Amino acid sequence: MRHSNGNLILGAATIAFAILVIFIWIPLDTQTGLIEKVRRQVTIGDALAPTIAASFLAIGGLMLVLFERNADDQPKVSPQDVLFGLALIASIIISILVMRYAGPATVGLWNLLSGSEAEYRLLRDTAPWKYIGFLLGGTVMITMLVSLVEGRLRVKTLMIAFISVSVMAAIYDLPFDDLLLPPNGDV
Amino acid sequence: MGTLDYIWLGILAVFQGPELFSIFGLPISVTLVMILFGFLTGIAVGATPGLAGPIAMAIALPILISIFGYTPDALLPVMGFLIGVMKGATIGGAVPAILFNTPGTPDAYMTTLDGYPMTQKGQARKALRVAHFASASGDTFSDIVLIICAPFLALLVEAYLDFPEKTALLILSLSFIGAVIGGSPAKGVLSTGLGLLAVYIGTGEDFYPRMSMGSDQLNQGFPIATSVLGVLIIGAVFKEMTDLWHQRRSSGTRPSFQDEGNQRLSRAEIGRLLPFVGRSALIGTAIGALPGIGSTLAATLGYTVGRARHARTKAEGAPDFGDGAPEGIAATEAANSSVSGANLIPVLSLGIPGNAAAVFLILAAESIGGFNPGPSVFRFTQDVVNPELVIAFGLFTAMFIANALNWTIGGLFMRSTGIMVRIPKHILLPTVLLLTLTAIYVQEARIEAIWFALGFGALGYVMRLLAISPLPFVIAFILGGKLEESARQAFAATGGDAWFLFGSPISILFIAASVAIILFSARRKKQEL
Amino acid sequence: MKRTLKAAIAAIGLAVSATAGMAADWTPPGPIKLMIAFRAGGGADTQARLIAEALEEKMGWKFIPEQVTGKGGLNMANTLKGQPNDGTAIGLAVTETFGYNMAAANAGMSPEDFTGLTTTAGFQMGIVAPSGKGWSSFEDMIAAAKGGQDIRFGVMSPKLADLAYLLGKAQGVDFNIVQVKGGKAVMNGVTAGDLDVGFMAGIQAKGVASGDLVNLASGLSQPLVQTPDAPTMADLGVDFDSDGYFVFVGPAGMPDDARKALSEAIAAVVSDESSKAGGLVKKAFGGSATIMGNDLTQLMSDDYSNAGTLMDAASE
């Protein structure tokens, strides 16, 4: 019986990545080498640990190529799965961008309309401003993900999403003074 | 301060902690209430397919930390809750396995083999009783072993292991975990390597955050919550959603069965189950004590051993394993439940987590501070109280309170959670995802944390597609910092000896064992083919 | 609910103090982000959180505490540097961060990138050994080292590593200097026997009192309060010391009214031993030490410029 060559490809790719890490990424992107003399003391440098990590990768890759090339439990990755995964991640990225910028955009709009000079950063702990991003972004996220799985967009989904996001906001925000909903911690 | 004093202080710490309310003048400490909440939550999430203990722990942790703050007083209530979830989820997982042929947690898969046939025969409630009895027995046994073994192991480690040996022990644990978790040693080692690489990015001693490609966002490295929750939970959510998407058209209505006959467990029946429970509890505890070998293997082994015995001893006409034998459920549930207590032996005595629940206990301890699981916890100081030891005994107390809850109200509550399976998974999963991202954000308070978590989620998804177990990744991520730190210290303490790993018989033994484990498991895998 | 209540109370408080003619002329324009350069749960972290809590109660200001740890406080400094300087972002670190660490990292930051607000407390830095070693004085340890014993010296920062090295050099011995993460780790190492001696910045007090640990020497320019007879660094032939403080800072160019209001409010809280924060400072760090204004600016810039001398000495 012919086996898939998934493990062979994965093993080879891992080895290639490990070599790349050891010989290019680490030397170019760390300040000290494997072992360093700092002032008068010989110490372990910053490059040693990642080199060991990459060696684990290389060993794993080698084991795949040498011992498990013909294993019968090799997974088959369908392009469908990859595409669906990408769709999921893209939806989340869009929703987080909405979450991040909805608040400041609303404040900007408000300033335009009323001529005031409010700053979202200073309003991020003040209702209702602080809820705008989370509610909008969260609702978009849940709606998009549910619709992806269902294969259709329904008003009901949108409502369920909005309600569950509101409940979530209440859980994290109302009882606790110190918790800031995204994106209010670092705007 | 003798040992008994410490045990007593630990018990008092649980019962006399900050008081929440009092019943008839009897103060009820907040820790007790948290254990109860955790336990009930655990049963509920365990009984919900698609959720599991770790998800509940991940979402609850930042909320709990905000309630209780960053003080040592917070440790027992928060970790008590987590322990409650851990124990509750163990018995909850059996509910959908028995009632609907869908395991609520991965280790409950073997429970479906005899549980669902019993349901089909109208013995659903009896099957649940068997599962609960076996699970609670296995769990309690395992906890007793934990409490006896952990302090001794810690004292042994502290007495005999110096910096170089501790480094060698970490290498041994990582090799062992990599080689043993999941079906493929090669992929386990690969997963370990990825976890180490991830934790080394942006960290280190130099001012320039290594391997950060010049970006400012990485100058503290990846926060531990983003990698653990990303790979373990967000990755799992992505995978589950993909599976749902594949099967969205093939959903049907669930068949329902009427209960028939006596659903109680008689003394004689318990007597027949006991040998199976006992063996499986021993197997599960032994497996649990080794870091990384999960409850799934324990369940499989317990079931196999039970089946062999059942074939020899069963009465004429009694069902075989796989046809609805209560012994089958007992053998599985006792085995997978007895992993959980023993799994905390390496965590508490060495600081090496062996499963997802242990990972979250470490995460809680790290976030709150004031308790560093590891050998230094078990220092029985005489004059000054060692607060960490009190916490450790407090945790043991919490486990026994959870066990008491399990024996008293666990069965009742468990039998009422059959309804959880009706929650639509495709709505539940996105909600869990947003909850997890929010949980990460409120703890880290910067938007990069969400991007990191999403990236790790994607990594976890790809790892699942390629059948690479994410657990070695997570454990390596947690131990990576310790490994580098102890290597630096060993190097400095030996006066800059590059061969410090080979300076003592113990560390040579550890290193030889790590090489042997990897070679042995790789060869065995090859021979299997 | 709780929040509204708090806001209401704060508003009433403000109104009352305004009518009493005691209004602070500065209030933060928004919530104040408080970056803590220490691990959660330790004494330093608890100090920061208690101070924030006390100020929220007393002044009605809103704080958002956040951990930015790593690289001896430099990660925090680096993040704080880019924040707005209107008083809505401050941080807690130690003076060593802006002195030795900043100079050693050579990362394009100097104390001039920051506005010093106030120190809160100093360290009782001792050189501590377990009593089980049988050393009752620094000389005993040096004698043991000269007798051929390897001495493992635990330190928790590069500056202390340099000081340990100079100490060995002045005494004619070679220590194996082991850097660990935090004073707690030094103490654990020393009590477990993995380390022979180490710097501890105050956590040794209980152990010394009970007789488990011994202060062999003071790491400061002054004798230790607990063990006044132990020699100082200068007594042992080293011209440098580990004098240092916890310090609150903000980004450079903070307006004077904001700087003054913040530093005075913080100093008032830590100096008040009946407050939770003040009590902790008293218990854990031996009492408050509040240096602010130009004195603090001077202290920070001196630390920074002196760091080079120490590094040169330690490189020889």
Q: Which fold name fills CATH's third level, the topology of the largest domain in chain C?
A: D-Maltodextrin-Binding Protein, domain 2
Global shape of chain A: flat
Bin the helical content of chain A. Answer: 55-70%
Q: How many domains in all of chain A?
A: 2
CATH architecture of the largest domain in chain C: 3-Layer(aba) Sandwich
Low-confidence stretches of chain C: 1-23
Radius of gyration of chain A: 25 Å
Reading side by side through the largest sheet of chain C, how are the strands ordered? 2-1-3-10-4
SSE topology string of chain A: HEEHHHHH
Oligomer: heterotrimer
Describe the overall structure:
The complex is a heterotrimer of chains A (187), B (529) and C (316). Chain A has 187 residues and is mostly helical. Chain A folds into 2 domains: 6-66; 79-173, no CATH class. Chain A has helices at residues 6-29, 48-66, 79-114, 120-123, 129-150, 155-173; strands at residues 35-38, 41-44. Chain A has a two-stranded antiparallel sheet with strand order 1-2. Chain A is flat, with a radius of gyration of 25 Å. Chain B is an all-alpha fold. Chain B has one domain. In chain B, 70% of the residues lie in helices and 2% in strands. Chain B has helices at residues 3-15, 30-46, 53-68, 75-92, 94-100, 109-120, 124-160, 163-180, 185-200, 224-246, 267-289, 295-313, 326-342, 344-350, 356-368, 387-415, 425-444, 447-465, 471-493, 505-528, and strands spanning 19-23, 26-29. In chain B, helix 4 (75-92) runs antiparallel to helix 15 (356-368), helix 7 (124-160) packs parallel to helix 11 (267-289) and helix 11 (267-289) packs parallel to helix 13. Chain B is globular and about 75 Å long. The termini of chain B are far apart. Chain C has 316 residues and is an alpha/beta fold. Chain C is built from 11 helices and 10 strands. Chain C has helices at 2-19, 43-59, 74-81, 95-105, 138-146, 158-171, 183-192, 205-210, 256-271, 276-285, 293-315, and strands at 32-36, 63-67, 89-94, 114-122, 126-130, 152-155, 176-179, 197-200, 213-218, 245-251. In chain C, helix 6 links the parallel strand 6 (152-155) and strand 7. Residues 1-23 of chain C have low confidence and may be disordered. At the A-B interface, helix 1, strand 2, helix 2, helix 3 and helix 5 of A face helix 3, helix 9, helix 10, helix 17 and helix 18 of B.
